[in-house]
Amino acid sequence: MNDKGTSYMLWLIWLFGVAGVHRLYNKKIFTGVLWMCTWGLLGVGQLVDLFLIPNMVDEHNTKARIKLGLSPMGVPYQPTIEALVQSVPDSKPLLLTQDQLMLKLLKAAQARGGKLSVTQAVLDTECNFTDVENTLRAMAKTGYVAIENDPTTGVVLYDFVEL
To answer: pTM value?
Structure first.
């Protein structure tokens, strides 16, 4: 994560004839090179940046956290089933909570030897495909389920590794 103090120190290099280093540090490559070639837009852009540095650092750190799979506040992001369903345009509202659906999927997988396809899960839980698939993917991200393909049919199978 980038530091505002470091950005301000790099901004000061401008006084020694090199502008835009603070922009390069915050991954603003194009404008950093532009600042270097124009001496910080003849000093005007460099002076304006004095006030923009805190937002520049925050923006860089937010993008870095998101790349690492964290929320903008730095905590691990684990979407709820409601958030996953809202991101899919034509999905219907859930009749079950995420925990209830996970429990139904677990029981369905147990009845089928620990492996479950989306279609089998839809039949066993009576939920729609979108809800089931999003929940299985969320379970895979948290490590409860492994994803593999059936060797003969190629169907995607969710393997409940603890069963």
So the answer is: 0.47
